[in-house]
Amino acid sequence: MKQSNKKRILFLSSWYPNKNAPTLGNFVQKHAEAAALYNTVNVIAIFPHKERQYTLDHSDKNGVKSILSYYPQVNSSVPLLKQFLQYYRTRKAFRRAYNYYVTTFGKPDLVHVNVVYPIGLWAKRLKSTEKIPYVVTEHSTAFHLDSNKLSATALKLGVSWMNHAAKILPVSEDLKNSLKQRGVTQPMEVISNVVNERIFGNLPSVEPKKTTFIHISTVIDAHKNVSGIIRSIFELSKQTSDFQFLIVSDGELAPFVDLAYNQLTISSDILKFEGTKTTEEIAGLINTSSALVLFSNFENFPCVIPESFMLGKPVISTRVNGIPEHVNQHNGILVDVKNEAQLVDAMSTIIANKKDFDVAAIKAYAHEHFSYQAVGKKMDAVYTEILNTHVS
Question: Please, which residues have CB within 8 angstroms of residue 176's CB and are 6 or more apart in sequence?
Fold first, then answer.
């Protein structure tokens, strides 16, 4: 296969924006869009729904044609029956989507799995039955040794499916090391999350009149420690009121609103909450902030960090997992996990303007490492390597 020819790449993803969860796996969607700069990319993802019939939903966005296959949700409480129905319905949903894809677009040259469990099963089947090689991009924190939510069986299957892939593409060095410790033996290459430079790279820099912090996440507290952020805001507000903080989430904000306004009586002039935003709205909000704040207990390398960098904004974050691979003294401040005093000090440093960040340098780093073009080229090189080996 000549490198100049566009390769037909089929993304199979366990997580992808869908009608049940419109922001689920939006980082996978961005990876697909980056890959589509250089190749023909389609996506298949499978989800349950409350309807009785199987349906296929199609979309075409930023050069990526996706096929979302929905199956009737399994409601049985009998374990063996539930397991059988889940397998039968997901298999049928996948075959419907894949048959449509092949009939419409032709057989893929290569399959790119995103989040191996549970979609990796079908990539392995395609390799066995149709000799189609696959690679795996893993985003999930589930494979870290100290923070997984998968069962022992699911972890074992995930590792097995990875070991049938041609190459593994974790989004951080830290995750790469965790996968090795889990028993993944296939070649690995780190390819990070991406940022759409057309959205985040073209906004004129804005510095707000009052120091403004922003936090963007799912607000799952065991993961993101939003309650720790709010307690730190409360402590900081005892020192100064010369700042604002905005928490943005598509998750359940009510408990945090209660903690902030009712239990700690933080002023709404200091702390505000907002719900789900579009990518463009997120870019605008980060651009009008002074710094991004994350206080996670564990992470891989969340997209919101390179998005902030693309806008030239520094990041305050815990030094966990893949984050210190990119966040350093030149573009942010790292604090210890659950250390609220350090978080207060870090925010105070930004308010007092005690650190001088080079906005142009932060933006340049983001373009070099996280742009669609940079990441798309890396993925294209992997595809070419695998297919040349496969053909020969």
Answer: 168, 170, 188, 190
* pTM score, whole prediction: 0.88
Q: Are 365 and 315 in contact (CB under 8 A)?
A: no
Omega of the bond prior to 118 within 30 degrees of 0, cis?
Answer: yes
**15 and 162 both lie in a single domain:** yes
| Identity of the residue numbered 52 | R
Residue 96 contacts residue 54 (beta carbons within 8 Å): yes
Q: How many Å apart are CA 91 and CA 111, to the nearest integer?
A: 17
DSSP state of 182: H
What is the C-alpha to C-alpha distance for residues 226 and 370, in angstroms, rounded to an integer? 26
**Domain around 309:** 197-370
* Residue closest to 55 by CA, chosen among 24, 103, 89: 89
Task: With respect to residue 61, please indicate whether it lies within any of the assigned structural domains.
Answer: yes
Three-state SS at 252: coil
Strand, helix or coil for residue 79: helix
E-assigned strand segments in the chain: 8-13, 40-49, 55-61, 64-72, 110-114, 134-137, 167-168, 211-217, 243-249, 271-274, 291-293, 315-318, 332-335
- Same domain flag for 62 and 128: yes
Q: What is the pLDDT of residues 295-331, one digit of tens each?
A: 999 888 888 999 999 999 999 999 988 899 999 999 9
Site of tokens 């308010």: 351
Tell me how far apart the alpha carbons of residues 166 and 310 are, in angstroms, rounded to a whole number. Answer: 32
Nearest alpha-carbon partner for 132 in 162, 109, 161 = 109
pLDDT of the residue at 1: 41
Q: Note the pLDDT tens digit of each residue in 35-47.
A: 999 999 999 999 9
Distance CA 175, CA 112 (A): 18
The residues that bridge with 214 in the sheet, in sequence order, are 246, 292
**Assigned token pair, 51:** 């309807």
Report the distance separating Cα 299 and Cα 114, nearest Å.
Answer: 17
**Within 10 A of 111 (CB to CB), how many other CB atoms are there?**
25
Judge whether 118 lies within some domain. Answer: yes
Answer yes or no: is 3 within a domain.
no
Q: Are residues 92 and 124 in the same domain?
A: yes
Residue-wise pLDDT for 196-242, tens only, equals: 999 998 888 888 889 999 999 989 899 999 999 999 999 999 999 99
